[in-house]
Design goal:
307 residues; five-stranded parallel β-sheet; four-stranded mixed β-sheet
Length: 307
């Protein structure tokens, strides 16, 4: 059983990693290089805030957790937009860093029929959060630290710092680099995107892939499986929970919402199977709305879908 701590900490969760402003385009079908889909009219378009950590924290805050963001934002309109959005959602930005560069952004193409999306993104290298910039004392005032793999050196250093002090560390691992195994080993609960265990182990079966990942981590392992739900390996016991069936409008941010809800359920002390089920429900609700942070569900909405 994972200990989540019940001390009177300042924060329930601190998130370290990416934010983004998304330019979302709804399309009747995915484009093709030639033929009738080489040109098509956009059905609708809008701006929406997102990013892995920002969306996960918005989920935590919406569910009543005290959340704090650590990361970098730009000085342009998008940087101001993401700061205003996180502030409006009662996420503390006291230690967030503002750099005189453009904020990270993404162009997201959403197919209307399925809600599936393609993400095209850019991030100025000067937005990188350096390990020496971490406010070490702040991390020790939280019950959970949630990191992604955008600024890996900083994420690894922060994870090691707080995990040694008994703080739970969850993660959003979305790619494979030279530092991925080190990051996995540094956190308490690695949560992988579906393609990552395959790339790390060569195993296309999720359970076999998680079992192979035991060589770098002996705790709870989790992988999100998109429309197929999620799987975890708890000790030697595999746990599979299918996704809730909904009419998807936009899947952008669903994995980030899953992680935010996962954190909430962990802090509530639920067993792994119930944690996965609740996180699946929250992610499913988010798919019925457009936008990443705009799609974040309330606690009651996730519970109603479970019921």
């Amino acid at each position: 059983m994972i200990s989540t701590g019940k001390a009177a900490n300042t924060w329930d969760v601190i998130g370290l990693g990416a934010n983004s402003v998304d330019y979302v385009y709804m399309l009747p079908a995915y484009p093709q290089a030639s033929g009738p889909r080489a040109k098509m009219r956009v059905s609708a378009h809008f701006l929406s805030c997102g990013g892995q950590i920002a969306t996960a924290l918005a989920t935590c805050s919406q569910m009543g957790l005290r959340a704090k963001y650590l990361g970098t934002t730009g000085t342009d309109d998008n940087g101001r937009r993401i700061r205003e959005e996180l502030g409006r959602r009662k996420i503390d930005l006291t230690d967030a860093i503002i750099r005189d560069v453009p904020n990270q952004f993404a162009v997201i193409l959403v197919e209307e029929k399925s809600g599936e999306r393609i993400v095209l993104w850019d991030r100025d290298e000067r937005l990188q959060l350096r390990a020496r910039e971490l406010p070490a004392e702040v991390f020790l005032s939280t019950r959970v630290l949630h990191v992604d793999d955008v600024d890996q050196d900083a994420a690894i250093r922060a994870a090691r710092l707080v995990r040694d002090r008994g703080v739970l560390v969850t993660s959003d691992i979305d790619r494979v680099t030279d530092l991925t195994e080190e990051l996995v080993a540094s956190v308490t609960v690695p949560i992988f995107a579906e393609h990552v265990p395959v790339a790390m182990t060569g195993e296309h079966d999720p359970e076999r892939a998680l079992r192979k990942l035991r060589r770098v981590h002996d705790g709870l392992l989790c992988v999100t499986l998109g429309a197929n739900g999620a799987m975890a390996l708890d000790g030697d016991r595999p746990i599979y929970l299918p996704a809730f069936k909904v009419d998807a409008v936009d899947t952008t941010g669903a994995g980030d919402v899953f992680r935010g809800a996962f954190i909430y359920a962990l802090l509530e002390g639920h067993p792994p199977a119930e944690v996965l089920r609740f996180a699946n429900a929250a992610a499913a609700v988010s798919c019925t709305r457009v936008g990443a942070i705009d799609g974040v569900p309330s606690l009651d909405e996730a519970r109603r879908l479970m019921a």
